[in-house]
Amino acid sequence: MPFGNTHNNYKLNYKVEEEFPDLRKHNNHMAKVLTKEIYGKLRDKQTPSGYTLDDVIQTGIDNPGHPFIMTVGCVAGDEESYEVFKDLLDPVISDRHGGYKPTDKHRTDLNFENLKGGDDLDPNYVLSSRVRTGRSIKGFTLPPHNSRGERRAIEKLSIEALNSLDGEFKGKYYPLKSMTDAEQEQLINDHFLFDKPVSPLLTCAGMARDWPDARGIWHNENKTFLVWVNEEDHLRVISMQLGGNMREVFRRFCVGLKRIEEIFKQHNRGFMWNEHLGYILTCPSNLGTGLRGGVHVKLPKLSTHAKFEEILTRLRLQKRGTGGVDTASVGGVFDISNADRLGSSEVEQVQLVVDGVKLMVEMEKKLEKGEAIDSMIPAQK
Amino acid sequence: MASSFTRLLSGRNTAVLLASLGAGTMATGFLLTENGSLVAEAKKKLYPPSSDFPDLRKHNNCMATALTPAIYARLRDNVTPNNWTLDQCIQTGVDNPGHPFIKTVGCVAGDEESYEVFADLFDPIIKDRHNGYDPKTMIHPTDLDSSKITGGVFDDNYVLSSRVRTGRSIRGLSLPPACSRAERREVERVVVTALAGLKGDLAGRYYSLGDMTDHEQQQLIDDHFLFDKPVSPLLTCAFMARDWPDARGIWHNNEKSFLIWVNEEDHTRVISMEKGGNMKRVFDRFCRGLKQVEHLIQERGWEFMWNKHLGYILTCPSNLGTGLRAGVHVRLPRLSKDPRFSKILDNLRLQKRGTGGVDTAATGDTFDISNNDRLGKSEVELVQMVIDGVNCLIECEKRLEKGQDIKIPAPIAQFRK
């Protein structure tokens, strides 16, 4: 919360046992990692902007578990959170990101030319392709913690930067406050807009405060390149289009991102990034590339195959419903995307999606013909 | 030496520098805190109150009506002794622009001192909400002598149930929007220990929300005994649902006619209720029970938050004074369809709600009818008004049954000046 250290020093009058949360019924990464010892060690700390341990973990206390996915259960309030609370966040990061160690280095690669293929996914199956990531602007605190003044400053800066984009990226900003209900509904149905914040994962972390103040969506005229401002992160950058040309989607993604970054640098504002954690975002699950590259793909037969989950795991992919996270699939159409974020580069992650989806479409076609797919099941990537 | 050097660095650089010098995490944390206050100062200059002032143009609650940029600028950087701020008080009103049924208050207190430290905002809200009551000059009467009540036994054909509730806060502990887990658990401990001393018809048992089965919980909700899981954004945006269901629970006597909610919107909500129309007995038990609970808490060195201007101090400014809502579930099939119904209620200083409580609509012809006022009139006065008012409503209903016309009663005067 942006309210100084929120009562924190006063709490120190109570013992650790008295303040320690009851996590016995909880199943999220934070609950698995947090011990009384760690709590005791970190409870009197705060980041320079006043973010505390209890701020970090509140969402995980209030949300014991999620039906579809194992949630993280903690958030960062600013860049320094990952440093000041590393005794908690390093093990959470390790659990979430396949054993990533505090000494590991993360590779960033936004050269779209390094991607092989990706322009030939069968549009009879692959209905749409999309790549998203997030970016945080250095020098500001993050959505769980920022005040209205800060959030507005982030919005103002973002609008200036985005309005100076041209060519295929020329576009317009739509502040959430002045959008009509009809416009908003249309943008949601087109999969362009972010939800009104009803998920308790977000609301308990303080990210919905002052809604819809300083929130908005910017998109180019073709609606193929979009930026969300002040939702779960400062910026979410999205490239998308109908059909299966993931290569083109990724090209536009990389080019657009680089342009935006240049403009921010000209204003003396870089993105939060370091060589250990890559791009710094609100949720530890999005560290590294923050990249989710995915398709909406029709897999009615494959999705009911006994080995579907295993195939996804081996391909390092995950499935979601077509409403995004927290939804179930409709009509055999799945949202398939990369599972990894940290420890591999953007190019590597999109490559996994491209190769994996291509393989799954071929499997689907085989199953349509009544043939077996056992020989096609890949080794663990 | 070290401290003047580190003042030149940002917090993060400090951490890196100290880590490289081999300083332990404890020292790093300490210096980050020390440096933190300087960063906070710089931040206040970078973001003056005008940059933080909320956009309330589409808002319709008491806070939005009362909060001006000048008041915000004066109060933004103040804190109560527990470090509670104005922004925390008003967050719920910023996040909830308006309510379909009632004009909400739009702010909460985090502790007893909030009403003092942020008086420039709370006083006009109190005036707005409580019919012009001025906390600076007026005295609130407290009167829990139920023997003064006349009448109060309603016709069971119309009145299905009777209920009186209030809240009490434990002095010295932060209120639900602000309390830490340890404080909340302490409230629970203080209250439950005291309640164990109740005897006779008031003897009962505590049920912790965390240990209740889903079945028990649903039964208690259906009986109108239990408080909701916190889904209303009015509560959640005011931070009152944190750590749910830790240290929340319900105590009730064996007869289920005297109940106490622990750590919902207030430290305690005290409820006396029964089926049928014997409001007098309900209020007798209410006063008796409250006095005994107060006595039991005082034995252990605790007391309720109270002062002569604001009466009993509760989380929401709308509940100051008596914190009392006395009401009945009453069938008024004909009167409720009469176009004069609202005006009659207004004049009697009564409000209607659905039978699910606040935020619900009525089902069928049965309404929850209760007092509008909380502050500036005593408990006895308010309950008497409800009794007289409900009698009037039943009279109207009976007349309409016989095909007779009804008269709108004269409006009741507001509190003594």
UniProtKB/TrEMBL annotation, chain A:
Name of protein: creatine kinase
Family: Belongs to the ATP:guanido phosphotransferase family.
Key words of the record: ATP-binding, Kinase, Nucleotide-binding, Transferase
PROSITE patterns linked to this entry: PHOSPHAGEN_KINASE, PHOSPHAGEN_KINASE_C, PHOSPHAGEN_KINASE_N
Pfam family, one: ATP-gua_Ptrans
Domain Phosphagen kinase N-terminal, first and last residues per copy: 11-98
Biological processes annotated in GO: phosphocreatine biosynthetic process
E.C. number: 2.7.3.2
Cross-referenced InterPro entries: ATP-guanido_PTrfase, ATP-guanido_PTrfase_AS, ATP-guanido_PTrfase_cat, ATP-guanido_PTrfase_N
Domain of life of the native organism: Eukaryota
Nucleotide-binding listed as a keyword: yes
Gene Ontology molecular function: any one: creatine kinase activity
UniProt keyword Transferase present: yes
A Gene Ontology cellular-component term: extracellular space
Enzyme class, broadest EC rank: transferase
Residue ranges of domain Phosphagen kinase C-terminal in the record: 125-367
Binding site for ATP: 128-132, 191, 236, 292-296, 320-325
TrEMBL record, chain B:
Protein name: creatine kinase
EC number(s) given by UniProt: 2.7.3.2
Any single Gene Ontology cellular-component annotation: mitochondrial inner membrane
Keyword Membrane part of the UniProt annotation: yes
Membrane topology field: Peripheral membrane protein
Residue positions binding ATP: 161-165, 224, 269, 325-329, 353-358
GO molecular function: ATP binding; creatine kinase activity
Record function comment: Reversibly catalyzes the transfer of phosphate between ATP and various phosphogens (e.g. creatine phosphate). Creatine kinase isoenzymes play a central role in energy transduction in tissues with large, fluctuating energy demands, such as skeletal muscle, heart, brain and spermatozoa.
